Predict the 3D structure of the following.
Amino acid sequence: MARVPYLDKSDLAPENEDLLARNITLHRALAHSPNGLRAFGGLGQFIRYKSRLDPRLRELAILQVGYLARAPYEWSHHVKIGRDFGVTDDDIRSLIAETEQRPSQLEPIAKLVLKAAREMTNDLAVTPATFAALAAHLDNEHLVDLVITISFYNAVVRLLASLAIDVEPEYQKYLEAFPLPAGATESA
């Protein structure tokens, strides 16, 4: 159960009702801070719609963060969103294999993106070797967008866990299809 009540549009001032255009539990909790939610949403919108980073690679990076953090909310939402942007079930199985240091069928750039996400999540920064390998495939804009994406979603999983945001019932099927490793909680 969330640590703050979930708000509805009727709980908000009229000028803030637009904040719940996506009526997801995360937004319903963050709506307690309308300006905070607007700022949070602005970076999220950039990452999803304006970044020039390949959307599939972006979603793989986000999924890697969610998987490592054992964040049911992030994982379930981005299994669905990832599919909308070209992530396949085989990609998800490959992400799990890569995380467990088993072979996968992912192409080299996808493996590097996942490695960068693991390094930033576990060790706070991409190693020089991984960054150099990524630079052989991505220009500076794409590299910066990748780092912004991984950084933002590392913040998101911490926010989800700290506020104990619940996974909506319609997203449970994604957790059932691709369970997180032991240690995941129902909310977060």
In short: The two ends are 9 Å apart (CA to CA). The chain has nine helices and no strands. The mean pLDDT is 96. Residues 1-50 form one domain.
